[in-house]
From TrEMBL:
The keyword Protein transport does not apply. Pfam families: PhoU. Plays a role in the regulation of phosphate uptake. This is Phosphate-specific transport system accessory protein PhoU. Keywords: Cytoplasm, Phosphate transport, Transport.
Length: 210
């Protein structure tokens, strides 16, 4: 009976992590959308997502501490809960990075849209994918998927290098240098988000293998 209750609590933990990951996904998508739509309401949505992510971090922390105290988990279960506590720190920072992207997008000139840098959109989609894959690997206890995350991160790193090189080229033309730096910062924040996903994947591997 105790084990059934514990398993139910672990499933609840998984659901909380998935919901937090969904907030991260929405925050990134909305932030990048601001490149095309300088809409204060969308910017406010990103801020709201970031605040909700902070709330989820607090809820998950309390749930994990409750499991430690009430269930006194051993071995694999202990690693699983400990990993979740570490993962939510990275997930909270993903929310912060999404808000940072939104703030930069709102400062860009109105005519500097995604079509100036199509790779930014591709990089954002790949970044969302790596975040979701890392969380799904934890929930599904899929060590092979977790081990693939670092390879996916290489793709994100390559996007950053391509965007950086493209920016260097266009700065030599009549492109606004300040806007070029803003685009570079957006891609840098996306790269950081992917790095957080790699951290998450490493905690997934720890939770399974030790």
């Amino acid at each position: 009976m105790m084990r059934e209750k514990f398993d139910e609590d672990l499933r609840y933990l998984d659901n909380l992590l998935l919901e937090m990951a969904m907030l991260n996904e929405n925050a990134i998508k909305k932030a990048i959308l601001l490149l095309d739509e300088k809409d204060k309401e969308i910017a406010k949505e990103v801020s709201n997502f970031e605040e909700k992510i902070d709330v989820y971090e607090d809820i998950i922390q309390k749930h994990c501490l409750k499991l430690f105290v009430e269930q006194q988990p051993a071995a694999g279960d202990l690693r699983r809960i400990s990993a979740a506590l570490k993962m939510i720190t990275d997930m909270e920072r993903i929310g912060d990075n999404s808000r940072d992207i939104a703030e930069i997008c709102m400062l860009l000139p109105i005519d500097y849209r995604k079509d100036k840098f199509p790779l930014i959109n591709d990089m954002a989609e790949a970044t969302i994918g790596i975040v979701n894959d890392s969380i799904n690997a934890f929930v599904n206890r899929d060590i092979e998927a977790a081990e693939q995350i670092e390879k996916e991160d290489d793709v994100i790193d390559n996007y950053f290098i391509m965007i950086r090189d493209e920016i260097i080229d266009i700065i030599k033309s009549d492109f606004d240098p300040e806007a070029a730096i803003d685009f570079l910062m957006i891609s840098k924040y996306l790269e950081r988000i992917a790095d957080h996903a790699v951290n998450i994947s490493r905690w997934v591997i720890f939770s399974i293998k030790g």
